[in-house]
Amino acid sequence: MNIHLQHQARTVDCRNCGDPIRIGEQSIRQSYHNFAGKSRMRFYHLACFLQYMMQWYVENPFAPTPRGRRAMVIPEGLRQERANIIASYSYNMKRKRELISGGEFEKAEMLDSKFDILKERIKGVGGVPKSWN
Ligand SMILES: [Zn+2]
Which of 3, 25, 39, 109 has the most CB atoms around its CB within 10 Å? Predict the structure, then answer.
């Protein structure tokens, strides 16, 4: 939706009060696209548009929206345990990468059993993270 300040170029009726806006009068042109995607215009007297805006603010009161990622719903005591498991997973992942880059593939494969154990443990404290699959 766009709002244009203008001097009226042709006589139209005000959207709010229905009285005509005469040529040369200061007016507000509101242009927008309707649901069918067609361009539409509405015209207002300055005072009428102010009234329209005040009405909008009454109908749409301030409602603060929460920002950021929602905190996981998990009992406070289990939060630390979950963090520990995730830290352990990250450490083992890093260790596995190091072993693979060092060419020690057998040792790297041995770590896989640890990941399974960690997955089992974290199921009880909030579920397995998506990135672990
Ligand atoms: Zn009006």
Answer: 25
User: How wide is the angle at C-alpha 36 spanned by C-alphas 32 and 40, nearest 5°?
Assistant: 30
| CA–centroid distance, residue 48 to ligand 1 (Å) | 5
Q: pLDDT exceeding 70 applies to what percent of the chain?
A: 100
What span, in angstroms and rounded, lies between the C-alpha atoms of 41 and 1? 10
pLDDT of 21: 93
Name the residue among 57, 115, 110, 124 with its Cα closest to residue 91: 115
> 20 CA to middle of ligand 1, Å?
8
- Give me the CATH code for the 2-59 domain, please: 3.30.1740.10
Q: What is the pLDDT of residue 133?
A: 79
> Which pTM value belongs to this model?
0.49
Beta carbons within 8 Å of 51's beta carbon, 6+ residues apart: 16
The strand ranges marked E within 34-71 are 39-45
